[in-house]
């Protein structure tokens, strides 16, 4: 079993949780420490548990209730965001926060407290969870929410699956007029311009995100494309996306410095010359990569790392510039690089990743030590700035880097379930179970 | 529609397709808690109405009342899908005749009883689709699972006869033959290329319920695999490890 980054393949004793009533018994009967695995769309090792138990939650896929008047949805934790959208969008509702793929489960979205292009306006996924049922391996069941058993709720949101298994959850959805998104494209040719766009566009658009060309930095300046979006008033049905797949690719890494440079240059050109304003189907705006199933195969059998960090507002421009310079100098080059400013809202969970500042996400083919050397240099800059890495994407962060980035980790430890472990927990809480 | 064995993965995937179209669904299963969970899922997904009834298929005396409840709940019935069943441990059945007969009781005895009860009611109504889930294992006995295969063969043969008897009386009888499907029943199997998801199989069953005829293999290639297997001469077949 591998995660989305395909960096390693871990052996598990697999237990499928079949329904939420029998799940508590199945979990408490497990002998080896386990971790819940939803749809395995996290990139690193947060959902892997080599040599231990994997509780597969994908079959906990029942809806419990949906009230089309209030937009309150209750469902089991293995339901994917796509299944929710397919159900509620025709009734005028949408996910309040969505990550860049709709193939994650609700349980995974909570455990990683995922964010989206609207963090500056709506916070993270956990901000919209009205309650959840947590199953502990000792057989205890904890019902918690923002106002009841709130300490358990705060520990579980962003808790990397280490506080228990989420069996079901309630979600407050948001109203939309239809399945379309009005979007605007702006070109920027320096980081100063990016931050200026973030300020001006962020004030009037719900969704903002930027793609940045870290292969070409003409004159040492970062260029990129800034996307803004908001739900459109258009109500006509959207076309169905064309299904494409990368499963046919030969088992080699097709992402090289050369192909990345070429792709990035073409992408930049297309957007500089293309239309500035458009109305797109929601899936084209939110989930462009979902259109190519198994796109992670592009990186060949060694897999790839996704490196995502956040740095605090104070000094963000200098830090992001320094990070980009290190990447440029390393020649590693990232196929897709994403830059976004986060809002200042207090985090939903104890261990939530977002903080007021800027987040940078990059994909690197796995080149062994060469990759880890690059990450060490990037980590040093992130740590110095007081930033942190995103566990949902991470596979290599050290325990020290983790504790510095997440000072709440000490407090979090109290809520850990002793019967739950993952490759990530063994690394990040090393020697301090 | 009526679904018997409604908490099985394949049956529920079919029921979801009906629910999404706003159909009224009557669910029958053994476990009351799971029945409620599955019912709520279908209600949320848009079912026009959901009725449920707890029934242990082995309790043949209770079949009649359960079927009557299904027929009266929404004033008649268009479609019935029988989907309950067990995959017995072949080796255990070879050691214990009691276990062997238990498997036959669930897969064969209770199923033909339900089919018979449904056939009477559909015939009286003058319309309906009666679908039952059988198995490719029913097409030819294999050393590794002929207890399961034989219990399903009873279902297949019974369905073939019923199809003939009800032909021209407005009642369509379908034998559904799913190949390897990734469900709780097959959780312990190693999955390979031939395996299909319950959703894929449900899409085929859904299409068959609407306009299919006779014996429906899903995925489609199982029809040809099983044709080939049936064509192998007994002298060769007896030596094969299948």
Characteristic terms for this protein:
heterodimer; A: 433 residues; alpha+beta; Vanillyl-alcohol Oxidase, Chain A, domain 3; 13 helices; B: 242 residues; Rossmann fold; 7-stranded parallel sheet; globular
Write the layout of secondary structure elements.
The complex is a heterodimer of chains A (433) and B (242).
Chain A (H helix, E strand, L loop, with lengths): L12 E4 L3 H9 L5 E4 L15 E4 L6 E5 L4 E5 L4 H8 L4 E2 L11 H6 L7 H4 L6 E7 L5 E4 L5 H7 L8 E8 L1 E2 L4 E9 L2 H14 L2 E7 L9 E9 L12 E2 L11 H17 L3 E5 H5 L5 E2 L10 E9 L3 H15 L6 E6 L14 E9 L3 H17 L2 E2 L9 H7 L3 H4 L10 H6 L5
Parallel strand pairs in A: 1-3, 2-3, 14-16
Antiparallel strand pairs in A: 4-5, 5-9, 6-10, 7-8, 7-9, 11-13, 11-15, 12-13, 12-18, 17-19, 17-20, 18-19
Helix pairs in contact in A: 9-10
Chain B lengths: L1 E3 L4 H12 L3 E6 L2 H13 L4 E6 L8 H11 L5 E4 L7 H6 L1 H29 L2 E6 L12 H21 L4 E8 L19 H14 L3 E4 L3 H10 L2 H4 L5
Parallel strand pairs in B: 1-2, 1-4, 2-3, 4-5, 5-6, 6-7
Helix pairs in contact in B: 1-2, 1-7, 3-5, 5-6
Q: List the uncertain runs of chain B.
A: none
What is the tally of helical segments of chain A? 13
Query: Strand pairing plus helix content of chain A: what structural class?
Result: alpha+beta
Distance between the termini of chain B: 37 Å
**Helical segment count of chain B:** 9
By oligomeric state, this entry counts as heterodimer
**What strand line-up does the widest sheet of chain B have?**
3-2-1-4-5-6-7
* Order of helix and strand elements from N to C terminus of chain B: EHEHEHEHHEHEHEHH
Query: How many distinct folded domains of chain B?
Result: 1
Rg of chain A, Å, rounded? 21 Å
What name is given to the CATH topology of chain B? Rossmann fold
Cα distance, first to last residue of chain A?
Answer: 25 Å
Largest sheet: spatial strand order of chain A: 15-11-13-12-18-19-17-20
- Helical content band of chain B: 40-55%
Structural class of chain B: alpha/beta
Residue-averaged pLDDT of chain B, rounded?
A: 96
Strand content of chain B: 15-25%
For the largest beta-sheet of chain A, the strand count, sense and barrel status come to: 8 strands, antiparallel
The beta-strand count of chain A equals: 20
The CATH class of chain B is identified as Alpha Beta
Largest interface (CB within 8 Å) is between: A-B, 13 and 13 residues
């Amino acid at each position: 079993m591998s995660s989305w980054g395909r960096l390693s393949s871990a052996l598990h004793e697999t237990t499928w949780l079949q329904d939420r009533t029998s799940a508590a018994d199945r979990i408490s009967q497990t002998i080896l420490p386990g971790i819940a695995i939803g749809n395995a769309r996290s990139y690193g090792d947060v959902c892997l548990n080599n040599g231990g138990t994997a509780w597969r939650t994908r079959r906990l896929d029942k809806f419990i209730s949906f009230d089309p008047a209030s937009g309150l949805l209750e469902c089991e934790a293995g339901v994917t965001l796509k299944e929710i959208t397919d159900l509620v969008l025709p009734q005028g509702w949408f996910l309040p926060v969505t990550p860049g793929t709709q193939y994650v489960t609700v349980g995974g979205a909570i455990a990683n407290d995922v964010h989206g292009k609207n963090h500056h306006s709506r916070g993270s996924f956990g901000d919209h969870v009205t309650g959840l049922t947590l199953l502990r391996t000792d057989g205890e069941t904890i019902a918690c929410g923002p106002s009841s058993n709130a300490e358990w709720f705060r520990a579980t949101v962003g808790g990397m699956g280490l506080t228990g298994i989420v069996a079901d959850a309630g979600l407050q959805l948001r109203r939309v007029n239809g399945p379309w998104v009005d979007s605007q494209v702006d070109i920027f040719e320096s980081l100063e311009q990016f931050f200026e766009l973030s300020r001006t566009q962020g004030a009037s658009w719900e969704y903002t995100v930027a793609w940045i060309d870290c292969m070409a930095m003409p004159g040492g300046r970062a260029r990129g494309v800034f996307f803004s979006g908001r739900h459109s008033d258009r109500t006509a049905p959207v076309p169905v996306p064309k299904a494409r797949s990368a499963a046919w690719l030969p088992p080699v890494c097709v992402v090289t410095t050369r192909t990345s440079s070429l792709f990035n240059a073409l992408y930049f050109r297309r957007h500089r010359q293309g239309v500035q304003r458009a109305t797109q189907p929601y899936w084209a705006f939110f989930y462009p990569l979902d259109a190519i199933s198994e796109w992670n195969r592009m990186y060949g059998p060694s897999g790839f790392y996704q490196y995502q960090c956040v740095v605090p507002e104070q000094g963000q421009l200098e830090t992001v510039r320094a990070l980009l310079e290190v990447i440029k100098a390393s020649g590693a080059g990232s196929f897709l690089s994403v830059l976004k400013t986060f809002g200042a809202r207090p985090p939903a969970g104890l261990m939530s990743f977002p903080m007021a500042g800027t987040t940078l996400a990059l994909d690197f083919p796995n080149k062994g030590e060469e990759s880890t050397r690059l990450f060490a240099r990037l980590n040093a800059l992130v740590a110095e700035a007081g930033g942190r890495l995103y566990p949902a994407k991470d596979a290599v962060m050290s325990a020290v880097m983790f504790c510095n980035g997440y000072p709440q980790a000490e407090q979090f430890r109290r809520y850990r379930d002793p019967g739950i472990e993952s490759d990530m927990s063994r690394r990040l809480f090393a020697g301090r179970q | 529609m009526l679904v018997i064995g409604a908490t099985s993965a394949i049956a529920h995937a079919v029921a979801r397709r009906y629910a999404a179209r706003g159909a009224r669904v009557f669910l029958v299963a053994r476990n009351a808690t799971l029945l409620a969970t599955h019912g709520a899922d279908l209600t949320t997904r848009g079912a026009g109405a959901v009725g449920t009834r707890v029934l242990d298929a082995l309790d043949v005396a209770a079949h009649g009342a359960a079927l009557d409840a299904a027929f009266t709940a929404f004033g008649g019935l268009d479609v019935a899908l029988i989907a309950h069943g067990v995959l017995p441990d072949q080796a255990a059945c070879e050691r214990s005749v009691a276990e062997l007969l238990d498997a036959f009781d669930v897969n064969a005895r209770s199923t033909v009883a339900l089919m018979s009860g449904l056939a009477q009611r559909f015939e009286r109504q003058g319309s309906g689709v009666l679908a039952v889930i059988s198995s490719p294992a029913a097409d030819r006995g294999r050393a590794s699972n002929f207890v399961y295969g034989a219990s399903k063969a009873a279902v297949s043969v019974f369905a073939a006869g019923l199809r003939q008897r009800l032909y021209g009386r407005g009642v369509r009888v379908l034998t559904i033959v799913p190949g390897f499907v990734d469900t709780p029943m097959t959780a312990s199997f190693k999955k390979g290329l031939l395996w299909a998801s319950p959703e894929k199989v449900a899409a085929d069953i859904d299409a068959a319920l609407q306009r299919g005829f006779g014996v429906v293999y899903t995925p489609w290639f199982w029809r040809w695999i099983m044709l080939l297997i049936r064509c192998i001469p007994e002298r060769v077949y007896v030596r094969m490890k299948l």
